[in-house]
Specification:
single chain, Nucleotidyltransferase, domain 5, six-stranded mixed sheet, three-stranded mixed sheet
Length: 484
C-alpha cells in the first residue's frame, strides 16, 4: 500500500535513523550491524564519561560558562556532536535501505526534514547561548592578566583640625601612587571587591556612584562581610599622591569622585582609569582595607531586566510621596507608592529604589538592597533562559569592571564556601559614624574614619562578636508583609 512507510522486507529506515539520532549506534543495532553499533556505543560512552568528568557538579558547569576558552571549546564540541549524530542517523538510514527497508518518497522526504529539524534545533539553541555568553564575558570583564595592583592603605583622617580645606591646587600632583602586586587570593587574608551603583541620569554631568558596597571575603573560611559607604559623606580621605586638594581628601560628596577622575585624570594615577583609581583609593582609605577589584552597574539598567521577568513583588511598609522625582528623560514628576504588597514594573521598582525626597539617603540605601534582593530571589529560571540575550545586552551596556576574565572561574569556585545567610552587613551612616558637620554651609557631613576602620577590623576579626556589639542582626532585614 502506498500509504505505508515501510515494507516487511527489512527494518524501517526512518525508525533506524531516528534511533541513531537519539543514540548513535542504536539504529545500526536495529538493522543488525552489531559490530558498528558496538563501536558507536563505545564512542557514546566515552563521550558521556568525558562530559561527566568536566561537568560533574554545579560549580564545574558554571565555571565552564565563565571561561572563554571553555565556551569556545564547547562550541567546537557542539558542532562535532551534531555532525556525529547526523552521520549516525544517515548511516542507519542507508543501512536499513540496503537491508530491504523502504519508504514512500513523500513520506521519506517529510520524515527526514522533520528529523533534520529535530537534530539541528537543540544544537543551534546551545550555540546561540554559548555565543551570547562568550560575548558577555569577553565584553564586560577585563581581558588582562589575573595579577592586579592595589593601593597600599594609609589611615589618615583626611581633614584639617577645623574640617576645612586649606586651599585648592590648580595643577595636578606628579607623585606616583605606591602600589603592591596582588598575590593569588588564596594567600590573601581578605579578598575585597567594591560594588558600585552608578546613576547616569539625564541632566547629570558624568557618573555618580550613589551606591558603594564593599564585599570582603576570607578565601580560607568563606566568611564574608559587606561594608556600605553612603554617598553624602564629605572630606573622605584619599591615598597619598592622589587629588588636587591640600587636605589629602575629597572635600565634596563622595558620590561625585568618579566625575573628578574624568575631570582631573592626572590627579589619580594607578593601574586603572583615573575614575576607577579615585573611587577605589577613596573607599580603601575610608575603610582601612585594600580594594582589589570593582564592578560598576548602572542602576537604571535593571528596568529592562525586571520588565523581562514580569515585574517584582515588593512589600512597602509606609506610603512614599516624592513631588520631584527625576524620570529617565530628565523631567520631574510626582510619584506616590502606596503601602502594602506591590507588584512593580521596572520603572516602578527603580523609582522605589531611587527616591529619597520622602525620607533620606539612608532609607534609600536599604530600599535599593531590598529591590535587588527581591529581583534575584524572584527571577524565574525559565524567564532568565528565554530572555538571556536581552539580559546579556543590558549587562554589557550597563556594567564595567576590572575583574580579569581569567579570574572568573576562581570566583565561581569560591562562592560555595560563602555562607550567604551569615554575611555580616554594616552601613556607615549617621548618627553613630558622624564626626561633625561641615563649617562652610554646604551639604554633607564628615565621617568618623577612625571609628569606621575600628568597626571594619572588628567585623573581619570576629564577625559574631561584631553582630552583637554593633547590633547588626536587626538592621539589614527587608520589610515583609505581616502574617494574616
Amino acid at each position: 500500500m502506498a500509504s505505508r512507510l515501510s515494507t516487511s522486507r527489512g527494518p524501517s529506515p526512518l525508525v533506524s535513523a531516528v534511533a541513531s539520532a537519539l543514540l548513535p549506534g542504536l539504529g545500526q543495532w536495529l538493522v543488525g550491524d552489531r559490530k558498528k553499533a558496538r563501536t558507536l556505543f563505545i564512542i557514546d560512552g566515552l563521550t558521556l564519561l568525558i562530559l561527566l568528568f568536566f561537568f560533574h557538579d554545579k560549580v564545574s558547569i558554571v565555571t565552564a560558562f565563565v571561561r572563554p576558552s571553555s565556551l569556545a571549546l564547547m562550541m567546537v564540541i557542539n558542532i562535532v556532536i551534531l555532525g556525529y549524530r547526523v552521520w549516525a542517523a544517515d548511516d542507519a538510514y542507508r543501512s536499513a535501505t540496503e537491508m530491504g527497508g523502504s519508504v514512500t518518497r513523500i513520506a521519506g522526504i517529510t520524515a527526514m526534514l522533520a528529523l533534520g529539524f529535530f537534530l539541528l534545533v537543540p544544537h543551534v539553541v546551545f550555540g546561540y547561548y554559548d555565543l551570547v555568553q562568550y560575548s558577555l564575558i569577553t565584553t564586560v570583564f577585563d581581558g588582562g592578566e589575573a595579577s592586579a595592583t592595589t593601593t597600599i592603605v594609609s589611615t589618615t583622617q583626611g581633614t584639617t583640625d577645623d574640617g576645612a580645606v586649606t586651599g585648592q591646587q590648580e595643577t595636578t600632583s606628579s607623585t606616583t601612587t605606591t602600589v603592591v602586586e596582588q598575590t593569588p587570593w588564596d594567600e590573601l587574608d581578605r579578598l575585597n571587591i567594591l560594588l558600585l551603583g552608578g546613576d547616569f541620569g539625564v541632566g547629570r554631568t558624568g557618573i555618580r556612584t550613589d551606591t558603594m558596597i564593599t564585599v570582603s571575603i576570607d578565601p580560607k573560611t568563606g566568611e564574608a562581610a559587606m561594608f556600605q559607604v553612603p554617598r553624602n559623606w564629605t572630606y573622605a580621605p584619599l591615598p597619598e599622591g592622589m587629588g588636587i586638594w591640600d587636605c589629602d581628601c575629597y572635600p565634596e560628596l563622595t558620590n561625585e569622585l568618579w566625575i573628578m577622575g574624568e575631570r582631573y585624570p592626572d590627579a589619580f594615577p594607578g593601574p586603572g582609569t583615573p575614575s576607577e583609581n579615585a573611587v577605589k583609593g577613596m573607599i580603601s582609605e575610608f575603610l582601612g582595607i585594600p580594594i582589589h577589584y570593582y564592578a560598576l552597574v548602572n542602576l537604571d539598567g535593571f528596568v529592562d531586566i525586571i520588565d523581562s521577568i514580569g515585574g517584582v513583588d515588593i512589600y512597602v511598609p509606609e506610603r512614599i510621596v516624592d513631588n520631584e522625582y527625576p524620570l529617565l528623560d530628565g523631567t520631574l514628576t510626582k510619584i506616590v507608592i502606596e503601602p502594602g504588597q506591590q507588584r512593580m514594573s521596572g520603572e516602578e521598582a527603580l523609582a522605589y529604589a531611587r527616591t529619597r525626597h520622602a525620607d533620606s539617603d539612608y532609607f534609600r540605601m536599604n530600599r535599593q538592597k531590598c529591590v535587588l534582593e527581591a529581583a534575584m530571589e524572584q527571577t524565574d529560571p525559565t524567564s532568565l533562559i528565554l530572555n538571556f540575550g536581552k539580559f546579556a545586552d543590558v549587562i554589557k551596556n550597563t556594567t564595567t569592571t576590572d575583574i580579569p576574565v581569567d579570574l572568573l572561574p576562581k570566583l565561581v569556585e569560591l562562592l560555595p564556601a560563602i555562607d550567604i545567610e551569615n554575611v555580616v552587613s554594616i552601613r556607615f551612616i549617621p548618627p553613630e559614624y558622624h564626626l561633625k558637620y561641615r563649617d562652610d554651609g554646604k551639604l554633607g557631613a564628615i565621617a568618623n574614619i577612625d571609628l569606621v576602620q575600628e568597626h571594619v577590623q572588628l567585623v573581619i576579626a570576629d564577625p559574631e562578636r561584631a553582630k552583637i556589639e554593633l547590633n547588626l542582626q536587626e538592621s539589614e532585614e527587608c520589610p515583609t508583609a505581616p502574617e494574616s
